[in-house]
Design goal:
Layout: H1 2-20, H2 49-52, E1 62-67, E2 70-72, E3 76-82, E4 88-92, E5 96-101, E6 106-112, E7 120-128, E8 134-142, H3 159-182
Amino acid sequence: MRVLRALTVAAAAVVAVGLSTPFAAANPSDPLGGAPFGGSPSGQGGNGGNNGNGGNNGNGPSNVTVNPYSVHQGSTMQVSAAGCRHGGTVWSAGNFPQTNLSAGSIGFATVRIFNHASPGNHTLSVKCHDNSLVATHRFTILRGNGAQGGIGGSFGPSTAETAIGSSLVGAAALGAGVHVMRRRRPLRGRA
């Protein structure tokens, strides 16, 4: 019974330390001053070709958007465009391979940025299968790989964090031992 209590307290300490570690999360905003979650840094959004008026009266790609606007090398980006009812293609030379845009009133494509793509501002192009018009939209490639989402993230704990965590686990184990020792019952035959 005593061992069960000690194990329960130790398990609770391990769970508490495990849950207190920070989760890695990608920064949705561009540290270089871009716009978060699509749109352009100037707040204009993506209106496609025809001087930003949304294509040629609905007869070609329009309202092109990207999410996220700023993306790391090797990461994925969602591209959407209206007006390509029969699908289309999305490309950006040297940044990601030509990718198919789905059919429908709003077409979607997920593109993977090359690991070796050069950081900076770039332009992607969208063309419908049933039209020769091409719409463009700007996006930014950030240097390096993004966070490796999930538990653990892209950074390991520092030496100081490891020392603090170990001392907390040790203190919890010591506290559990003291608690169990103080709660001991007298043996039979002793009063």
